[in-house]
Amino acid sequence: MSVTPVESKSERRTSRNTIERRTIPRAPGRVPLNIVLGLLMVYFLVPFWWLIVNSSKSSAGLFGGGSSLWFADDIDYVQNFIDLFTYGGGIYARWLANSALYAIVGGIGATALAVLAGYGLAKYTFAGRRFSFAILLGAVMVPTTALVIPTFVLFAQVGWTNTIWAVIFPTLLNPFGVYLMNVYARDAVPDELLDAARVDGAGEFRTFFTVALPLLRPAIVTVLLLSVVASWNNYFLPLVMLSDNRLFPVTVGIGLWQSTASTYGAAGGQSLWSIIVLGSLVSVIPLIIAFLTLQRYWRGGLAIGSLK
């Protein structure tokens, strides 16, 4: 008596999928697209690789004539780190702390205002809503650098220049964040769900905090991340507002070192180029960590907000 082997359902499904994968031809349009994506990836990664390589070199190694895209013989990250955080009485650590303060306070404040304004424009009907939304769309098109000088004139009249508030207050206004929250709230928070909460006796504040706010979480993280990155990378606003170098963020501080090195070649007998390169590398590490830890919420917010 012979026994015929019986193929299980999972095996048949696996073999069918394997055959389908083998028979489905790849779309010819993907090859140029992959080439373009590969070139873009190289374009964005080469400057970061340049920072990693050259932050290991001394000032002599930077200008010694070797390849700028590969390490020198004397890799010395430790000494460069010591020079970076001890030069000028440790002013670089203070600049990093200032950037963190401006980014966290400005980012959280801008996100809170964007959530409230975007939710209000999306879910409430009031006189002037269309006009307010038109003003919002117009504000998105205005570059923030164009408003720096008028803001400086206003702050100078009230004595707020050269203070931390001169950097934090302008960053609280984020028209793009309000627009994103408005678009997201209209799609992600059903009106029927809000009406059901009101019928159950919940007030407007309780409805917002217990029903709407959890549904807005991906967009909140997205706006928070974009606001923090914009505040961290802000250069022109603190450059105009601040004159005390102890209040500088890291962007303006590195710019100060770069102008000093370009003008005088060295400061106090020490060349600044090696710590400028390493300081630039250290300044982007917090942003990379933030993107990697929050990318799940960030990508979800962009996709559902129809910006992808």
Automatic annotation (TrEMBL):
<feature type="transmembrane region" description="Helical">
    <location>
        <begin position="164"/>
        <end position="184"/>
    </location>
</feature>
<feature type="transmembrane region" description="Helical">
    <location>
        <begin position="205"/>
        <end position="232"/>
    </location>
</feature>
<feature type="compositionally biased region" description="Basic and acidic residues">
    <location>
        <begin position="8"/>
        <end position="21"/>
    </location>
</feature>
<keyword id="KW-0813">Transport</keyword>
<dbReference type="Pfam" id="PF00528">
    <property type="entry name" value="BPD_transp_1"/>
</dbReference>
<feature type="domain" description="ABC transmembrane type-1">
    <location>
        <begin position="96"/>
        <end position="293"/>
    </location>
</feature>
<keyword id="KW-1003">Cell membrane</keyword>
<keyword id="KW-0472">Membrane</keyword>
<feature type="transmembrane region" description="Helical">
    <location>
        <begin position="272"/>
        <end position="294"/>
    </location>
</feature>
<feature type="transmembrane region" description="Helical">
    <location>
        <begin position="31"/>
        <end position="52"/>
    </location>
</feature>
<protein>
    <submittedName>
        <fullName>Carbohydrate ABC transporter permease</fullName>
    </submittedName>
</protein>
<comment type="similarity">
    <text>Belongs to the binding-protein-dependent transport system permease family.</text>
</comment>
<keyword id="KW-1133">Transmembrane helix</keyword>
<feature type="region of interest" description="Disordered">
    <location>
        <begin position="1"/>
        <end position="21"/>
    </location>
</feature>
<dbReference type="InterPro" id="IPR035906">
    <property type="entry name" value="MetI-like_sf"/>
</dbReference>
<feature type="transmembrane region" description="Helical">
    <location>
        <begin position="100"/>
        <end position="121"/>
    </location>
</feature>
<feature type="transmembrane region" description="Helical">
    <location>
        <begin position="133"/>
        <end position="158"/>
    </location>
</feature>
<keyword id="KW-0812">Transmembrane</keyword>
<dbReference type="InterPro" id="IPR000515">
    <property type="entry name" value="MetI-like"/>
</dbReference>
